[in-house]
Design goal:
248 residues, alpha/beta, six-stranded mixed sheet, three-stranded mixed sheet, 9 strands, globular
Length: 248
């Protein structure tokens, strides 16, 4: 199958790049499905961290309005976004320019965001008669804050990196290079602990009293304390060397 998402290996880090600069990296059904598949393949191949990028001056200009009404588009979009959230490895978005509509949703689905000074975020649904799902609204309010979220949703205001400071984990003139360097550092950490930490942060904020959530978080916690990586971390500290974690 021809790939529309570029997947580039950088040792233990995988870069997934939306390579559609002629459409400012707008997403259609094919791109959503291919990004989902590329992410699954990267994780199955043993990647320790993922960097999500876009080619050209825009991170992602949103949904391709030529195909947004296609059957299956919304299912493909939201399945891909939720996979980014649920995947057990950290995902870092390198936001070098506008992240509008589905582009903002992509940035929200990532665990961390490295942003250039010219990055902007927007959800202009009310200008188009569209809507985003409740997860997007909650995630936006949690990360950006209630005031910025209301301005984006109720006035269609586009927020720069100062106004949307809650979405900016690191600032960089070259966010791709900075995100890849950060991901390489993250990839050296204990995979089971990272998976547990990501699960706990996401699920406990979204569903803090849900029995399934509490069970999954408890299982992840126990797995960390019973892991070979914990023993390796202790040995490395005693031997004054860097640990070599294997995710077991």
């Amino acid at each position: 199958m021809t790939r529309v998402i570029e997947s580039l290996a950088h040792d233990a880090v995988t870069e997934l790049r939306i390579a559609r600069p002629e459409r400012r990296n707008a997403l259609d059904t094919e791109h959503c499905r291919d990004l989902h598949a590329a992410l699954d393949e990267a994780v199955a191949g043993g990647t320790r961290a993922v960097v999500l990028t876009g080619e050209g001056t825009a991170f992602c200009s949103g949904a391709d309005l030529h195909t947004v009404g296609d059957a299956g588009f919304l299912d493909a979009l939201y399945a891909m976004l939720q996979r980014l959230v649920a995947v057990e490895v950290p995902v870092i978005a390198a936001v070098q320019g506008p992240a509008i509509g589905a582009g903002t949703q992509l940035a929200l689905a990532a665990d961390l965001r490295v942003c250039a000074p010219q990055a902007v975020f927007g959800l202009p649904t009310a200008a188009l008669g569209l809507a985003v799902d409740p997860w997007t609204v909650r995630r936006l309010a949690l990360l950006a804050g209630g005031g910025p979220a209301r301005r984006m949703l109720l006035t269609c205001e586009r927020l720069d990196v100062v106004a949307a400071a809650g979405l900016v984990d690191r600032a960089a003139d070259d966010p791709r290079a900075a995100a890849l360097a950060w991901a390489a550092e993250v990839a050296e950490l204990a995979p089971l602990t990272l998976a547990y930490n990501k699960l706990a942060v996401n699920r406990l904020l979204e569903e803090p009293t849900d029995p399934e959530t509490l069970g999954a978080v408890a299982a992840g916690f126990s797995a960390c304390w019973a892991s070979e990586d914990l023993a390796e971390g202790r040995r490395a500290r005693e031997e004054r060397r860097a640990p070599r974690f294997v995710g077991k």
